[in-house]
Amino acid sequence: MVNKVSNALAEWGYKVASSFLPAYRIPEGSAIGNIMQGFFGMNPASYNVWKELGFLAEPLLQSLITPAVNRMLAGMTDEQVQDVVFKFVDSFIAQAREKGSVNLFGIELKEDAFVGLREILANKMGVE
Question: Model confidence over 75-88: pLDDT tens digits?
Answer without folding.
Answer: 999 999 999 999 99
